[in-house]
Predict the 3D structure of the following.
Amino acid sequence: MDTSDKAKEKRKVTVPVKIMGESFLITGTEDEGYVISLAKELDGKLAEARKLMPSASPHRIAISVALELISQTRKERKKSDSLLDAIERT
């Protein structure tokens, strides 16, 4: 990989998104389309949670969704680790 490839990889972009009706500027090194897709997915999960907890504050809804996402991530990581262990044993 030459220097120009490394520069492209590290280039920061700022992407405008809307989550729960609020505008945010997300800065990072990910592709703009990817950031937008993440924001849309998050907004969808927050909207689902809002339907289940209509009287909850946006703060409480966000925390509930974050905890669920972390739980899902841990479960997937555990499955992945188990699969890698099984592969290494063969």
